[in-house]
Amino acid sequence: MLVKKILVPTDFSKCAINALKIAAEIAYKQRAKIEVIHAFHVPAYAPMDVMAVDLVNQPILKEQQDRVKEEFKTLPDLVPQLKDINYSTKVFMAPAADAIYECTEQDDVDMIIMGTKGEHDVAEKLFGSMSAQVIKSADVPVLVIPENIDVFQPKHIGFAADLHAIDNMNRLGILSLLAKMYDAEIHIFHISEEDDEESLSEAARERMFLEGSLKDIKHTFTTIYHEEATDGIVEFAEKKKLDMLAMFPRQHGFWDKLVHGSTTKKVVMQIQIPLLTIHE
Fold first, then answer.
1. Residue partners of 80: CB distance under 8 A and separation at least 6
2. Does residue 125 surpass a pLDDT of 60?
3. Separation of alpha carbons 278 and 161, rounded Å
4. Please, are residues 18 and 109 in contact by the beta-carbon 8 Å criterion?
């Protein structure tokens, strides 16, 4: 897989700047372009005629746009790597998730890299409210960088195997790319609730397909027997000292167990590593 264009949403926070630094590093190695976007809302007012709304909003929009332009000017100083790559900036007057979706649809984006502050409710603590929406809707790989990460040098990548979610092994290209780029080892793990013949057969089938796709990359394959997927992830991440977790999010199954399961809070508290989601 070739990454030619990376989309980086920013709110100019420390977390977002860290994500941009990581995106710039990957872009430099791939000779890729970066598109940095910022989105903001226009305040809502009580019902009033259109002309009155425009009169109220115009000064606010001008002030916001001027502020963002000044923020964009500071990026090369905050992220020196930008001086060595091709990048552009864009401002949207829209919800951030909508702006990201529009860019991925229209601007030939190959990958999204974004930071997450991890606030509010349990699901948002895992990915941040905007990150959760982007992961759910994006049809390109998304690399989410937690706010505690300022250096990205993954040497041990965990891949939660779920063969039912993989309709095309070529989609593993981004995982292979990052592994080769950082000379990382991929630790493939299959989580099963029971040690039965059906589970063993499924794990063996996954291994057969994945071995072929990752034959040129250092990797291991492990089957974990655990009643709770999230507990299994926590234990495996700790044992292998993972630097990054990769998975195929999908509407049901493993993804639902992770986001909505009763042990999600435990994962949030104990695993603070970048997450790569690879879409169907």
1. none
2. no
3. 11
4. no
